[in-house]
Automatic annotation (TrEMBL):
This is Mitochondrial sodium/calcium exchanger protein. It holds the Pfam family Na_Ca_ex. InterPro entries: CaCA_antiporter, NaCa_Exmemb, NCX_ion-bd_dom_sf. It comes from Colobus angolensis palliatus (Peters' Angolan colobus). GO terms for cellular component: mitochondrial inner membrane. Residues 106-244, 421-571 form the Sodium/calcium exchanger membrane region domain. Keywords: Antiport, Calcium, Calcium transport, Glycoprotein, Ion transport, Lithium, Membrane, Mitochondrion, Mitochondrion inner membrane, Sensory transduction, Signal, Sodium, Sodium transport, Transmembrane, Transmembrane helix, Transport. GO terms for biological process: calcium export from the mitochondrion; intracellular calcium ion homeostasis. Its main location: mitochondrion. It catalyses: Ca(2+)(in) + 3 Na(+)(out) = Ca(2+)(out) + 3 Na(+)(in); 3 Li(+)(out) + Ca(2+)(in) = 3 Li(+)(in) + Ca(2+)(out). The keyword Lipoprotein does not apply.
Length: 583
């Protein structure tokens, strides 16, 4: 069983790559932008001059709607809603503040959707977050990294797929890197000073510095070839291999220390952390007190109602008002995920088999897949001009669900129940992709309204939104006494984000256009981003060994001050206060 489950996880990883290739390719047309842009040669084809969409606010109010509808730079083929047309054509000019308020509120809720889908569902029920040792295992740097970085990866892929929003990708990846390595890492040390593990720290920070250096060279060269994109992905594979070798070496040394009583510095958990893990595993299961003394056979309707209930009433009574208020906003998202995403949990006796709900998944989940893939383009396509694809999917799903319902029982999961993990992984990944597409389109619309570059939107709003969930998770780990694990996650996750985000995003564009990707840096701001990220890594690389790996609150405060200074410099650069002298 364990071996088959590991094979399933590796198969899901391959499925993930194929899925992202399908969701990004062929969706958008390339055109030359005025900011950081991906450019593809026109091959002698005459192109219509494109005006920067941000110039719309300088026009007369009566001309703005026509400008948005006719200017190619204002068009976005992805997503369900045209936010620029909505704000300039459907809202009166005097209600512009109301429109911006609604857009920001919807943006915050989309960030909540991204966080709940990536964190709570675990991308198909892989349940990897509950395994502490995964921080340094192959699964920790592949599946757990993808679960943590799914919003960042999909946002980068969506942004790279459109030349108008390519700046969001670089801004978000660089901005999230600076945020995580300064604010999150500094916050962990302030909450709980600790002794860092030396070898994992050096390994992760060196790999991340190499990735940043490669990206710096990529921007300097101004183009990305197929070999360069494959080099990014190859470097991540090499990183995974290195983690595996380090894990084996550590275990070999630990076995030797047990035999010869030789002291070995642990890399995964400190003694206090191991004591907490062991004490938690031996603790009394108070959930037994709430189990009924007499069991009865539930009806199909009762099983379905209980499976679709996202609220734990006992936990609700114990939690604070803040938790309850946040839970109210999360309930619609959690209910939608329960209804559309099947979860296979190998840790449960029944592997989370709920016959009525799983049969319902066979109808709803494929329907969600076709309606979210390419923003529903494939779902509404009519076969032979008569029947839409989504109708065929509903009919086939209903037939399969009927057979499954009458061929299985409520008490025993079927032999092929593990196949639901594939369906759950695919559905949850497409939910994330759909939400990430809307996030990118809203941020671009806000950039047009406020005349901000996509780079500054990426390093602020997009980076903050995608990183806030991981920040709270790492802070919670630090408060619970696991600061080493939280600190290591700061560097391990962003390595995955930048190498896979840039490498796979450019690779998909190159494979679609059959030409190299050309980059045009947005002036000084991109170099400020890259330089700040490099300086933060050099600061940690030098200061942590000087502290003998004993990280104090002073180190955390220095990191926070570094981020504040970086943010001030970035904003001053964006608004032209800091600029290069023209010669």
């Amino acid at each position: 069983m364990a071996g088959r489950w590991l094979d399933l996880r590796w198969a899901l990883s391959v499925l993930c790559v194929l899925l992202m290739a399908e969701t990004v390719s062929g969706a958008r047309d390339s055109s030359t932008g005025a900011h950081i842009s991906l450019q593809f040669p026109a091959s002698g084809v005459n192109q219509t001059p494109v005006v920067d969409c941000r110039k719309v606010c300088g026009l007369n109010v009566s001309d703005r709607c026509d400008f948005i509808r006719t200017n190619p730079d204002c068009h976005s083929d992805g997503g369900y809603l045209d936010y620029l047309e909505g704000i300039f054509c459907h809202f009166p000019p005097n209600l512009l503040p109301l429109a911006v308020t609604l857009y920001v509120s919807w943006l915050l809720y989309l960030f909540l959707i991204l966080g709940v889908t990536a964190a709570k569902e675990g991308l198909g029920g892989l349940q990897l977050r509950s395994w502490p040792a995964l921080t340094y295992s192959p699964h920790g740097v592949t599946f757990l990294a993808f679960g943590n970085g799914a919003p960042d990866i999909f946002s980068a892929l969506v942004a790279f797929s459109d030349p108008h929003t390519a700046g969001l990708a670089l801004g978000a990846l660089f901005g999230a890197g600076v945020l995580v390595t300064t604010v999150v890492a500094g916050g962990i040390t302030i909450l709980h000073p600790f002794m860092a593990a030396s070898r994992p720290f050096f390994r992760d920070i060196v790999f991340y510095m190499v990735a940043v250096f490669l990206t710096f060279i990529m921007l300097f060269r101004g183009r990305v070839t197929m070999a360069w994109a494959l080099g990014y992905l190859g470097l991540y594979v090499f990183y995974v291999v290195t983690v595996i070798l380090c894990t084996w070496i550590y275990r070999w040394q630990r076995r030797g220390s047990l035999v010869y009583s030789m002291p070995v510095t642990p890399e995964i958990l400190s003694d206090s952390e191991e004591d907490r893990v062991s004490s938690n595993s031996d603790s009394y299961d108070y959930g037994d007190e709430y189990r009924p003394l007499f069991f009865y056979q539930e009806t199909t309707a009762q099983i379905l109602a209980r499976a679709l209930n996202p609220l734990d009433y006992m936990k609700w009574r114990r939690k604070s008002a803040y938790w309850k208020a946040l839970k109210v906003f999360k309930l619609p998202v959690e209910f939608l995920l329960l209804l559309t995403v099947p979860v296979v949990d190998p840790d449960k006796d029944d592997r989370n088999w709920k016959r009525p709900l799983n049969c319902l998944h066979l109808v709803i989940s494929p329907l969600v897949v076709v309606l979210t893939l390419q923003s529903g383009t494939y779902g509404v396509y009519e076969i032979g001009g008569l029947v839409p694809v989504w109708v065929v999917v509903v009919i086939a799903g209903t037939a399969l669900a009927s057979v499954t319902f009458f061929a299985t029982s409520d008490s025993q999961p079927p032999r092929l129940h593990w196949l639901f993990a594939f369906l759950g992984f695919l559905t949850s990944a497409l939910w994330i992709n759909a939400a990430a597409t809307e996030v990118v389109n809203i941020l671009r619309s806000l950039g047009v309204v406020f005349r901000l570059s996509n780079t500054v939107l990426g390093l602020t709003l997009l980076a903050w939104g995608n990183s806030i969930g991981d920040a709270f998770s790492d802070f919670t780990l630090a408060r619970q006494g696991y600061p080493r694990m939280a600190f290591s996650a700061c560097f391990g996750g962003i390595i995955f984000n930048i190498l896979v985000g840039v490498g796979l995003g450019c690779l998909l564009q190159i494979s679609r256009s059959h030409t190299e990707v050309k980059l045009e840096p947005d002036g000084l701001l991109v170099w400020v981003l890259a330089g700040a990220l490099g300086l933060s890594l050099v600061f940690s690389l030098v200061s942590v060994p000087l502290q003998c790996f004993q990280l104090s609150r002073v180190y955390g405060i220095c990191l926070l001050l570094f981020y504040l200074n970086f943010l001030v410099v970035a904003l001053l650069t964006e608004f032209g206060v800091i600029r290069l002298k023209s010669t």
